[in-house]
Amino acid sequence: MDTLRGRLETLKQMQRELASAVRLEDTFRKPPQLVAGVDIAFLGDEAVTACIVVSYPSMTEVEVQFFTSRLDFPYIPTFLVYREGPAIRKVMGRLSAQVDVFLLSAQGIAHPR
């Protein structure tokens, strides 16, 4: 347990560092054209991650990708990115479309860190 506790302290520090880089202003030079939604579902210790890309504003489907993987990080509130993030990155990496905006179910700036 001490190993996990030490690892969580390291991950907390990483979260704080990433949070300090958050920018809340709109820096888009033009409206987004491709928007992707990503979500993850769980079947025991496996994650099924899906990503759909649509053109905006027509919402016409452009691409769909899925990825199934085993989870190797435990469920710990406020550390879900370390559980779900690898599978999300994997499915995003399978896309051939150049996405302008990704929509994810996450805490964003409401996260405690």
Question: Number of helical runs?
Answer: 2
Strand order of the largest sheet: 3-2-1-4
Low-confidence stretches are: none
Portion in strands: 25-35%
The CATH topology: archaeoglobus fulgidus dsm 4304 fold
Instruction: Give the rounded overall mean pLDDT.
Output: 93
Q: Structural class of the secondary elements?
A: alpha+beta
Distance between the termini: 22 Å
In angstroms, what is the radius of gyration? 16 Å
CATH architecture: 2-Layer Sandwich
How many structural domains are formed by the residues? 1
Q: Give the H and E element order.
A: HEEEHE
Helix fraction by DSSP (H/I, runs of at least 4): 25-40%
What coarse outline follows from CA principal-axis ratios? Answer: flat
CATH homology superfamily: archaeoglobus fulgidus dsm 4304 superfamily
Beta strand count: 4
Please summarize the sheet with the most strands: 4 strands, mixed
Name of the level-1 CATH class: Alpha Beta
3D structure, described in words:
The chain has 113 residues and is α+β, with helices and mostly antiparallel strands. It has a single domain (2-110), classed as 2-Layer Sandwich (archaeoglobus fulgidus dsm 4304 fold), CATH 3.30.2170. The protein is 28% helix and 30% strand. The chain is built from two helices and four strands; from the N terminus they run αβββαβ. Strand 2 (46-55) and strand 3 form a beta hairpin. The longest helix is centred in the N-terminal third of the chain and has 18 residues, at 2-19. The radius of gyration is 16 Å and the shape is flat. The two termini are 22 Å apart.
